[in-house]
Task: structure prediction
Amino acid sequence: MDSAKELFDKLRSFKADLQAPQQLLNYCTQVLGSIERLHIDFKEKHDRRDAKLADDDRKNLAKGVSGFANSSGGVIVWGLKDKSLSPKPIAEVPIFVSSLLQLASQITDPIVPGIDGDWIPSVTQKDQGGFVLIFVPESPLPPHRVILNQDEVKQHYFVRTGDSFVVASHTMLEDMFGRRPKPQLLLSTRVIQSAEQSSGKYQIPIILGIENKGRASAKAPFLSLNVHPPYQINPYGIDGNGHFGLPQLTVSMDSTEKRYGASSDVVIHASMIHEVARVNVLINVKDQKQSEIADFVVDYKIAAECTQLVEDQKVIPGSQLWQYTKRRT
Result:
């Protein structure tokens, strides 16, 4: 199979067949039993006559959810003996699968999204006995730690290795933390088209902010701006009433730098722009030539919680600013 999801879809498709249990057994023994079991795990229920979850059932589910999510995903098949794959169907299987899915959403930190489940009857739909399929996708936010309050599994991170689940090593954990989506922050500059104010004079607003182009939210954003003369940050904020997009931070009296920052209560979500400050560029098309318009230059620093500080410079040529005037002809 190319993926855990394809395997899950293949196994659950047997449910529509009149020979569903035999189809499942044949596929598991003839196809899955002879390959490396990276994406499949077989479990027996502790007491298959009782649909309630026993401690062993909870532990097996915890290992499976953490291990498959931290690896490349997989399917847990309940009701087959691990080595021989002999059938051990479970009574009241709809209740059992419902209990597994409910616990699966509470068993790790962070929660693994996208877990799914189904069941296949052992003989007929009427006796409510059968086999359970639990699909665990590869997680975009590994690693997932087991928070089930039971010995052997509590506070452990599991991974799938060969045909078993093992506790992740320190190196494995470093690898998984490195795979987590991260914020990607850069300076946003929005230049606003200006209408003529009076006698050939134009005020071109440049709104400066933080853009998050990453796949994770950025908490506690920080922005430092050093606008080169002849331009400067508008002291009246982005709305003209003294409001800035982030609280202003104190700097030394001789510094030309403006700093803005917030606590972790402020979040810039993925693909969003958080506007912070404003610069007004004044252009007089009667008294100035296009070549006389100074370039807009700003040195900036951007950071957020758990991100590295980004330092760079943004330049908007004066000729480009000139194009934002709506001159009368």
User: Anything to note?
Assistant: Helices lie at 4-12, 20-30, 55-69, 93-104, 170-178, 318-322. Residues 185-322 form a domain with the Immunoglobulin-like fold (CATH 2.60.40.10). The longest strand covers residues 201-212.
